Structure formats: structure tokens, C-alpha cells
Amino acid sequence: MTDDLSLDQQVCFPLYAASRAVTAVYRQELDALGLTYPQYLVMLALWERDGRGVGDLCEALALDTGTLSPLLKRLATAGLVERVRSAADERRVEIRLTDSGRALRARARDIPKRLAAATGLSEQELKALRDTLLRLTDALTDRTRNEE
Description:
There is one protein chain. With 148 residues, the protein is mainly alpha-helical. It folds into 2 domains: 12-108, Orthogonal Bundle (Arc Repressor Mutant, subunit A), CATH 1.10.10.10; 110-148. Helix content is 66%, strand content 8%. It is built from 7 helices and 3 strands, in the order H-H-E-H-H-E-E-H-H-H. It has helices spanning 12-31, 37-48, 54-61, 65-77, 99-108, 111-119, 123-147; strands at residues 52-53, 81-85, 93-97. Strands 1-3-2 form a 3-stranded antiparallel beta sheet. The longest helix is centred in the C-terminal third of the chain and has 25 residues, at 123-147.
């Protein structure tokens, strides 16, 4: 008989442990860039599309403004981003990369490949894992929204 409350029967624990392990590998890679993992995620979003609004970044990164704002302040202090009021709507703040922030992208270019190699998984396995995690996140997010 299996105990549903035993640690080895849980989905949450391997997800948690994997997340910590992945973040530890990223930490090693990102130290050279002077970025934390959450700051790296912000930079990825901005390298994908510069000049995003704070709300757009919150949505893209699944963060609230209370979590994102200190990240943006530290990135601005480091000279990687700047906060600019939108010309079209003064209430909207856009986050724009500085020249240093854009230049950092070239130094970060190989990080995804190095992390993929560190996993020991094939490209197909990584894609399947990412797709499964996205479906899991969507399902759980939908459930949480429906209960609120």
C-alpha cells in the first residue's frame, strides 16, 4: 500500500528540488554578469522586447509589482535599464534597456546552451519538459483564478 503523504509520492517536491538545482546552475553562470536569476528573467523579457510597460513585464514574468519594482530599481542602479514615462500616456512607465543593458545580451548568449548541457537531457527531452511544465502552470493558474 502506498502512502499518499510520503515525500517520494509527491509532485511538488521534485519540482521544488529541480527549481533549486536549476537556479543554482544559473547562479554560477550569472555571477559573471552581475545578475541574479530574477534580474536575468527581467533582462530576457527586455531583450525579447525593449520598452515594455511595468504591467506588461509583471504579466510576462508572472510577478506582482511589489516583487518587480525592487528588481527594476537594482537593474537601473546597475545602469542596465531606465524607467521612462510614456509619451503617449504619462501614467505609464516604460522600462528601456540602456546601451549597457543591450551589450550584456551578447555576454549572456551562451547561457541557455550551457544550462541545457548541464541537465544531461536531450533537446527533445528539454522541449517536452518545458511544454509539460507550461501546461501544468496553465492548469494550476486557471484553477486558482476560478476559485478566486
